[in-house]
Specification:
membrane, 68% helix
Length: 90
C-alpha cells in the first residue's frame, strides 16, 4: 500500500507546487488564488493514475510522470481553463 501512497502524495504535492508557481508567474485568473494549487493538486493525482495505466499497458518510464503533471496543469489553467468573464460597464 505504501508503494502507491507515497508516490501519490509526492505527485499531488508536486502538482500543488507547480500550480502555485503558475499563480506567482501571473497567469490569467490570478484573482482566484486558491484555484491554482487546487488544480495542481487534482492534476497531480490524475496524472499519477494515468501514469499507472500507461505503465501497466506500455511500460511507460517514470520521467513521464512530472511531464504529465505539468502538461495537465498547463491545459487545465490555459486552453481548457476557466474563461474570463468580461466586466459589465454601466
Amino acid at each position: 500500500m505504501l508503494d502507491l501512497l507515497i508516490p501519490l502524495l509526492l505527485t499531488a504535492a508536486f502538482g500543488a507546487l507547480i500550480g502555485t508557481l503558475c499563480r506567482l508567474t501571473r497567469w490569467p485568473g490570478r484573482e482566484r488564488s486558491l484555484l491554482f494549487p487546487l488544480v495542481g493538486l487534482v492534476a497531480g493525482v490524475t496524472a499519477f493514475f494515468i501514469h499507472l495505466v500507461l505503465n501497466w499497458v506500455t511500460g511507460a518510464p517514470i520521467w513521464w510522470l512530472p511531464v504529465l503533471v505539468i502538461l495537465q496543469i498547463w491545459l487545465w489553467l490555459g486552453p481548457l481553463g476557466p474563461r474570463q468573464r468580461p466586466k459589465h460597464r454601466e
